[in-house]
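Worked Example 4.2. Consider the chain below.
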Amino acid sequence: MRKPNDITLKEGIDKLLNVYKLKGKFDETSVVALWPELMGKAIANRTTQIYVSQKKLFVRIESSVIKNELLMVRSGIIQKINERAGSEVITDIVFL
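Applying the procedure from the previous section yields the following structure tokens:
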């Protein structure tokens, strides 16, 4: 039986992240973890380093051909990442 002040586990975790101001870092970490799923196996295998700093996603790709292709669809990638995260986590992508 539910009590009137009960909340779901999801709501509790969201409140915890907001109170301790960890929501932004949590979202950034999830972007890094979701990179292979979002971009596919071929691109993920050629990605050597990925990190987020000040709402910019830095990605080191070892293939110059793939890097140029990704540069052309940069805005689409940003939109896809932010849709998946549910908020604006990334504002720019830098390919290294």
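Residues 23-39 form the longest helix (17 residues). The chain has a mean pLDDT of 89. Compare this with Example 4.1 before moving on.
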